[in-house]
Amino acid sequence: MLAEILVLGSIIGGIWALVASGFSLVFGVARVLNFAHGTYFALGAYVALVAYEIFSKSLPVEISLILAAIIACLAVGAISVAVYVLTVRPVRAYEVMVILVTLAVALLVKEILLSIFSDVSISIPPFVSGCIYIAGIPVTYTRIIAFTIAVSVIVAMDLFINRTRLGKEILAVSQDSEAAMLVGIDVERVFVFVMFLSAALAAIGGVLYAQIYAVNPMTALRVLIYAFAIVILGGLGSVRGSVLAAFIIGYMQVAVSTLFASEWAEVVAMLAIIAILVVRPQGLMGVE
């Protein structure tokens, strides 16, 4: 049982790390608590499925999947930027309004998805079939690929933020946006880029998740609960803390699902949020 928790928990933890790192990045840089973040996760899966069905009519399955994933990331990122520019930016100074606006966007997109696809769960065909045994646990190649992609993207993002000029501008804005503006950094450009990046990360997570499990319009709420639990545990605004917390939550999710039932995993996640806020409000790697 322990081997199953470690193996399967690492895989789902990698996907949650993609989602939570983007959620935490937006809050850390733009101070936006984006309640539409889970929606971008589900939207990524739906856009990828539609794109795949179009490409697969004339292209091989593998190429169709890769193109569909790329288009999903770009499309969801662009939608996130449009949402930010049209609805969030005008009220960004008012935290409660930001929450209400992003929540309204999440509900709107959910209703649109329900109208088009109904409440039937969808899945994206896997890149490859087959499985291998790790510590006696059968693990599909799809899960291994998902974990590899998730970790690679997280490492690439960390290198980008810490090694590139734009990444250092992001760090500067996250520490003090007014001081960053005084030294010539285009703060608004940084905000827009971070909104795009965070949504693209969520979309990648949605595509990978939909190849292992199933996604429906209600998935967005489940993802938001997990993302919230992860960033609270890791520390609001701490991307590395969110990555660490994502794996902890992933292990917890698999353990609860194995010992009890998968429905209890969200309950435990909510209890974790409450407990962390009471015991250590700044999280594992946050600051007071």
Write the layout of secondary structure elements.
Layout: H1 2-30, H2 37-55, H3 61-88, H4 95-117, E1 131-134, E2 137-140, H5 141-163, H6 165-175, H7 177-182, H8 187-212, H9 219-234, H10 239-259, H11 263-279
What does this structure look like?
- The radius of gyration is 18 Å and the shape is globular.
- 76% of the residues lie in helices and 3% in strands.
- It has 288 residues and is mostly helical.
- The protein contains eleven helices and two strands; from the N terminus they run ααααββααααααα.
- The protein starts with a helix and ends in a 9-residue tail after the last helix.
- Helix 2 packs antiparallel against helix 3 (61-88) and helix 9 (219-234) runs parallel beside helix 11.
- A hairpin with a 2-residue loop joins strand 1 (131-134) and strand 2 (137-140).
- The protein has helices at 2-30, 37-55, 61-88, 95-117, 141-163, 165-175, 177-182, 187-212, 219-234, 239-259, 263-279, and strands spanning 131-134, 137-140.
- 45% of the residues are buried.
- It has one domain (2-119, 133-279): ABC transporter involved in vitamin B12 uptake, BtuC (Orthogonal Bundle), CATH 1.10.3470.
- A two-stranded antiparallel sheet has the order 1-2.
Top keywords for this entry?
288 residues; mainly alpha; ABC transporter involved in vitamin B12 uptake, BtuC; two-stranded antiparallel sheet; 11 helices; 2 strands; 76% helix
- CATH C-level name: Mainly Alpha
In the CATH classification, which architecture applies?
A: Orthogonal Bundle
The class by helix and strand makeup works out as: mainly alpha
Strand segment count: 2
Question: How many domains would you count in the coordinates?
Answer: 1
Order of helices and strands: HHHHEEHHHHHHH
Major β-sheet, in short? 2 strands, antiparallel
Cα gyration radius (Å): 18 Å
Mean pLDDT: 89
Overall shape? globular
User: How many H/I helices?
Assistant: 11
Distance N to C terminus: 37 Å
Largest sheet: spatial strand order = 1-2
Q: Which percent range fits the helix content?
A: over 70%
